[in-house]
């Protein structure tokens, strides 16, 4: 997984930023590494760069697809100064925490 943890508010993200979006498809969770596009009316729009292939999805089906999600379904990956391991940091109040 790409380490992309930062303390920016989701409103301050640009197309240079990446984030992970979790989607549920047929009862299974999938995590997509995405390029941020926009945040409007409480919805994140992003382009899929990589996907969780462990569940048998084929890259050609979803790569470059535009998806949307609420910030509560988005996370960043990394570790803070006090962390021993890398973790998912889910967005809460617009900031990954």
Tell me about this structure.
By secondary structure, the protein is mainly beta. It has one domain. It has one helix and seven strands. The protein has a seven-stranded antiparallel β-sheet, with no helix packed on it. Strand 5 and strand 6 form a beta hairpin. The mean pLDDT is 89.
Helices and strands in order:
Layout: E1 18-25, E2 28-40, E3 43-51, H1 59-62, E4 66-69, E5 74-78, E6 87-92, E7 95-96
Antiparallel strand pairs: 1-2, 1-5, 2-3, 3-4, 5-6, 6-7
In what order do the strands lie side by side in the largest sheet?
4-3-2-1-5-6-7
Distance between the termini: 18 Å
Mean of all residue-level pLDDT scores: 89
Overall radius of gyration: 13 Å
Structural class: mainly beta
Helix content: under 10%
In total, the number of domains comes to 1
Number of DSSP-assigned strands: 7
Estimated share of beta-strand residues: over 45%
Which overall shape is indicated by the principal axes computed on the Cα atoms?
A: globular
- State the low-pLDDT regions, or none: none
Number of helices: 1
SSE order, as H and E?
EEEHEEEE
Largest sheet: 7 strands, antiparallel
